[in-house]
Design a protein that fits this description.
This is AB hydrolase-1 domain-containing protein. It comes from Allosphingosinicella humi. The structure is a single chain. The chain has 279 residues and is α/β, with parallel strands linked by helices. Helix content is 36%, strand content 17%. The protein has a domain at 3-122 and 200-266: Rossmann fold. Helix 1 (68-81) packs across helix 2, helix 3 (135-147) crosses helix 4 and helix 3 (135-147) runs antiparallel to helix 6.
């Protein structure tokens, strides 16, 4: 498993497998690159790069508390290090916020498309925004993380799946909770605080890449109205609902999810044409 070293000395772990158009996989809060294992079959026609975001999995965060901006900086550095071109970014939950930051930064022209999985451009509601979570709910999560992180993490692992599939996914839910709980509570608390401060609404109009919005019909976090908002706010976007998924369609319905990725990729033009080498 390769690592790269960020400018502050943080070691960022990632997987790099397969050949073809790069597919950059960015996980949600408390998860890690292993939550995309069911997408490994896509390595038959894509170059899969799955990252452990700073503060998660095998990418620990030294020094100061991590922020969304730092995570995006790490991803940008990795994209440039690997010299990725014509890439598709796949951002699930927290990973979507990181991807939006990247797509409005210096590495934006390295991407041909984006896939957003069950995320809102603003997590915390206010008087003019109701497509996220209430201020009380955001604060309650912060307190729960700090008070008893293992209990919070295990409950969150259960909650990412659709209630209608609870029995079939019981083992996966138990695994997810255990994996969530392996993180450092301080890093997760800092990232949650950073996440609820983000507001990407004004940036969406600057994202020119075609975007596929994937959401679970049984998500306990965000509904179809959030997906509709993203479709309206992004210059080139469409939504796809997974009727038997909660917050993690890529895990709950991997077959349809992977087919959607293949179909979406096939619809994208190449951003950069590479010169043909002749003998």
């Amino acid at each position: 498993m390769p690592y790269f070293t960020a400018t502050d000395g943080a070691r960022i772990a990632y997987d790099d497998m397969g050949e073809g158009r790069p597919l950059l996989l960015l996980h949600g809060l408390m998860a890690h690159r292993g939550f995309f294992e069911r997408q490994h079959e896509l390595a038959d026609s894509f170059r899969l790069i799955a990252v452990d975001l700073r503060g998660h999995g095998e990418s620990r965060s030294p020094g100061e508390a991590p922020t969304i901006e730092q995570l995006a900086g790490d991803v940008t550095a990795l994209v440039e290090l690997l010299d990725l071109e014509d890439a598709i970014g796949v951002g699930w939950s927290l990973g979507a916020s990181v991807l939006w930051q990247v797509l409005t930064g210096a590495a934006a022209d390295r991407f041909a498309g984006a896939v957003i999985v069950d995320m809102t451009p603003r997590v915390m509601n206010d008087d003019s925004w109701r497509l996220g979570l209430s201020e009380d709910a955001c604060e309650a999560r912060r307190r729960a993380i700090e008070a008893d992180f293992p209990t919070f993490a295990n409950a969150a692992g259960q909650a990412i799946f659709a209630a209608s599939n609870a029995e079939a996914l019981a083992e996966s839910a138990h695994w997810a909770g255990e994996e969530f709980a392996k993180n450092e509570a301080g890093a997760i608390s800092a990232l949650w605080s950073s996440l609820v401060q983000q507001d990407f609404r004004s940036r969406l109009g600057r994202i020119c890449q075609p975007t596929l919005i994937i959401h679970g019909a049984e998500s306990h976090l965000y509904g179809s109205d959030t997906a509709d908002h993203l479709v309206a706010a992004l210059p080139d976007a469409r939504a796809l609902r997974f009727d038997h998924s909660g917050h993690s369609p890529h895990f709950e319905q991997p077959g349809p999810f992977n087919r959607a990725i293949r179909d979406f990729a096939a619809s994208l033009p190449r951003v950069r044409e590479h010169p043909t080498t002749t003998a």
